[in-house]
Amino acid sequence: MNSKISFQNVTKTFDLKDSVFTALDDVSLEIEDQEFVTVVGPSGCGKSTLMGMAAGLVTPDGGQVEVDGAPVTGPGPERGVIFQQYALFPWLTVRGNVEFGLKLAGLSAEERRKRAEQAIDLVGLTDFADALPKTLSGGMKQRCAIARAYAVDPEVLLMDEPFGALDALTRVQLQDQLLDTWTQQKRTVMFITHDVDEAVYLARRVIVMAARPGRIFRIIDVDLPYPRTEEMRLSPEFAQLRNEVWHAVYHQDEPQDAVAA
Amino acid sequence: MAVITAPENEKATAKSAPVRGRKRRVRPIVLNLIALAIGMVIWNVGAALAMIGDLPGPGDVASRTGEMIGDGQLFENAWASLQRVFLGFLIGNAVAIPIGFLMGWYPVARGLLEPYIQFFRTIPPLAIIPLAIVLMGIGETPKVFVIFIAAFMATVVAAFQGVTNVDRTLVNAARVLGASDGVIFLKVVMPASVPFLLVGMRIGLGSAWATVVAAEIMGAESGVGQSMMQAQTYYDMPTIVVGVITIGVIGLVMDRLLLLAERRLTGWQETR
Ligand SMILES: Nc1ncnc2c1ncn2[C@@H]1O[C@H](COP(=O)(O)OP(=O)(O)O)[C@@H](O)[C@H]1O
Ligand SMILES: [Mg+2]
């Protein structure tokens, strides 16, 4: 198997006041190199916790998480993370934010500037390179966060509901842009969303999770070729897949092959 | 739906609001000048009718101010007080910032130091003066010491709060880009704490200024407070009032300067 990210029987519990909460119960998942997977599921089913383990921000209580065959022991620049709340450093300009990781990588000022410019250009923020985050709209902030992650050229992109707070129009634009850059430069992407449309449009596989305890409920293959287009989004095949995912997310207590046929 | 589109609308509303407001409102500076003029009239009438004992009128105070500027007394007094404030304020902040950061960063440091900070915080610095004079004599040391305490208390709490209020996602964002704990502290925690620090410093400076004058009144060789105390023994009312005004003006100027620094250094903050 050519797994880039491998979750092997991972378990995570949180100690509450007088009980133990099982956030993830024996979750196993293999994500292939250069694969684009999306993760959907009801709120609180452990999506962020699962991704946090791949990022090295959350330690599993049981099982193992491996990236490139090596156990994850902490965060690292080869795994870029994009948060829903943008998480831009508000005292740095767009350029300063994008250069942050490059500085840590020990690049020269000249090299930093060049790489940052490329990343900023890629997300279409060139005119705002010297702007502070507070002057940017939500969509522009998220573009900046994406540029910051891209700049250090990670092999893995972990995205936790990155477009969740954006309006529908901006969201669709950023989805296409994300797929564009992904086709140009294939990375392994694990993308969490609560938007069923988005999950189907982006992914080769949709991982549907269930809550209490957090676990993988179903995995749905999306047999649509890349590049994805607007026609595809409006096609009957797409509608069929969307129904299937919708059913898996919102009707977990009903038989699952009812709509699939 | 409105919630989702809000970020895109932010700028538009922020721009149009002041334009609409400006037309209706009278310029605040005009109101300020009117208030000042009314105050002067009331003061003048009050002094002329001897309503509050022997309160000197604005004329007497103005001419005494002129005299005190002329013979350099005013400047000398103010400088003596300011020197004490700056020294105590500088040492206070130099000690408070590392200690506050330490408390915010290391739970052990917090556990050890917090009881003392919380306890001494409730004591007005002035209440330390008698003790400080007995322990340190009547020279400069006890005065600078109480100012140190005033500045220290305000800043240490602010630095500590600054660290504990740092957004966890910012720390995580730095970690996933490869930042070590040291880098996170220098490049994320410290800049994120600046707004808290400056608020603490402003409170500390106000408190230090109040404390120095009181300390001088309790006994000193020089300073604005000392000059007022001396004037009191001679029943020199205009000099006392000049002292009161000097204290107010210097306090206001210092506060405005720090406010200016705050605006410049924390302009990156999202407006709430
Ligand atoms: N640090 C924590 N302490 C206690 N409970 C937590 C903690 N982090 C997450 N949880 C709980 O674990 C569950 C899964 O959280 P999360 O992974 O954030 O879910 P999702 O991202 O799918 O909404 C939630 O019920 C949440 O309340
Ligand atoms: Mg989540």
UniProtKB/TrEMBL annotation, chain A:
InterPro entries: AAA+_ATPase, ABC_transporter-like_ATP-bd, ABC_transporter_ATP-bind, P-loop_NTPase. GO terms for molecular function: ATP binding; ATP hydrolysis activity. Residues 5-236 form the ABC transporter domain. Signal peptide: none annotated. CDD domains: ABC_NrtD_SsuB_transporters (cd03293). Keywords: ATP-binding, Nucleotide-binding, Transport. This is ABC transporter ATP-binding protein.
From TrEMBL, chain B:
The chain crosses the membrane at residues 29-52, 85-107, 119-138, 144-163, 184-205, 237-259. One of its GO terms (cellular component) is plasma membrane. The lineage of its organism: Bacteria, Bacillati, Actinomycetota, Actinomycetes, Kitasatosporales. PROSITE patterns: ABC_TM1. CDD domains: TM_PBP2. Belongs to the binding-protein-dependent transport system permease family. This is ABC transporter permease. It is a multi-pass membrane protein.
